[in-house]
Amino acid sequence: MTVIAVAVVLALVAWVGFGAARGGLSDLSSGTTKSVSATATAQEAEASYKTAQEIAKYLEDWTDNGTTAAKTRSALDDAIAEFKSQVGGDPDNPQGDATALGSAKAALDSETLNAISTYCKEVDGWVDDMAHRWELQVGDTYAADVAAAKSKAKKDATWEDIKSAFAHARDVDAAIKKVQDDIKTTVDHLHSVEAQVTGINAAENTESAVTAAVDRIASIMGVEIIRTDDYGAEYGIKESGDDMSITVAFFVDSHPNQIFINTQHKEYDYTKRDNYMVTTVKHELSHRSVFIACGTGRPVIAKGRYEALAEAYSYKYFGVDGEYEQEIIKEQVAVATPGEEAEAFKAYIVNDSDYQNAQKIHDSGTCM
After folding, report:
1. Which strands sit side by side in the sheet containing 224-228, from one edge to the other?
2. CB 314, CB 281: distance < 8 Å
3. Residue 222: Cβ-neighbour burial (10 angstroms; 0-12, 13-18, 19+)
4. Cα angle vertex 247, ends 245, 250, to 5°?
5. pLDDT of residue 33
6. DSSP-assigned beta bridge partners for residue 134
7. Is the pTM of this model over 0.90?
8. Strand segments (E) across 73-193
9. In angstroms, what CA-CA distances link 132 with 68, 119, 127?
10. Straight-line distance from the first to the last Cα atom of the chain, in angstroms, rounded to the nearest whole number
């Protein structure tokens, strides 16, 4: 009986001790759970920070989209700075309890997604706007690359997570870079053929000699010469019925491989058999060169002086005698009918800034 009682007491002691031990393990387990949770959240917060930093660095390196990348980078920098302040100043070793760290992480993730989504939307929209212009700049040779960029851009897409948005941004930017490389290759070829026509002029002032010179230049430059009496409606340069009598020739952005000679010019019977027609074609080809380099025949850098810019370009890169041409232009201004005709001739008078801008466009593609 006594032995049984002792056994019972020992069993109770063992049970109580086990319960105490269980209770101790439970408390320890609870403490460990909190520590593991905070550590895991800190690791997740650190990962979010590194992702934000990677995207910010990417936007810093990608400069070709200008203000879009800069604006997005600025917003992301602000979010990163706020995150740092919330986790004790060292984002590589975030401090705080699980709740605070989770809140900081969520806020940074939200801002990172917003920044990269905004970037995607703007860049995709930019590709959509630029695609047709790129097609005209690079022609059939690189049309497939432009089509690829268009197909990758999704201007109306929304992004649910950072990873997919970032992957999309890199994919589209790579396609843009390929097109930009294509444009550079196109411009390099353009400059090589420009150099080949600098010395070409009419052998004599006859219609056949002028036509031969113009056709040879066109062949080397890869353009078609169109002689037309429809300066208005078909090509959209002027409204139908406007005065066509003072325009010798013209270039149209939407027809980048054609140069148009206006057969309704009032002195056409003279210009078609004078070397003046050759220099005029070189002037129009200069408009084309500016368009291919800049994606527009009216670059911002010209500040509205588009004819003077093309004139300066033709002097510097097509072998036109600028000193002689400027004398002729000033004489034409002096004898021109006051009004539209006189102002039209004045637009071709070149100053130093026109030469400088022509060189910037030619040498570096600086168009802004």
Report:
1. 224-228, 258-262, 249-250
2. no
3. exposed
4. 145
5. 44
6. none
7. no
8. none
9. 20, 21, 9
10. 106
Q: Which of 84, 175, 157 is nearest to 119 (CA)?
A: 157
Query: Can you read off the two tokens belonging to residue 176?
Result: 């843009």
Residue written as token pair 């070709």: 64
What span, in angstroms and rounded, lies between the C-alpha atoms of 18 and 160?
51
Residue 189 in tokens: 């070829």
d(CA 310, CA 329): 14
Residues of the chain below pLDDT 50: 1-34, 240
Whole-angstrom distance, CA of residue 77 vs CA of residue 71: 10
- Considering only CA atoms, give the Rg of the chain: 35
Rounded (5°) CA angle 178-183-185: 95
| C-beta separation of 362 from 313 below 8 A | yes
Q: What is the reported pLDDT for 248?
A: 92
Structure tokens at 365: 């593609």
Q: Measuring CA to CA, which residue among 295, 300, 311 is closest to residue 358?
A: 311
SS3 content of the chain, % helix, strand, coil (to 5): 70, 5, 25
Angle between helices 306-317 and 322-335 (to 10 degrees): 150
Indicate the burial class of 7 (C-beta count within 10 angstroms; 0-12, 13-18, 19 or more): exposed
Concatenated DSSP letters of 257-324: TEEEEETTSTTHHHHTTSTHHHHHHHHHHHHHHHHHHHSSSS-GGGTT-HHHHHHHHHHHHS---HHH
pLDDT of residue 69: 77
Indicate the residue type of 137.
Answer: Q
């497939």: which residue's tokens?
144
Q: Classify strands 258-262 and 249-250 as parallel, antiparallel or unpaired.
A: antiparallel
Question: Do the beta carbons of residue 39 and residue 102 sit within 8 Å?
Answer: no
Is 88:94 a contact under the CB 8 Å cutoff? yes
Crossing angle for the helix pair 162-197 and 98-138, to the nearest 10 degrees? 30
The pLDDT value given to residue 6:
40
User: In the numeric block, which tokens belong to residue 212?
Assistant: 């031969």
> Which H or E run includes 56?
helix 2-61
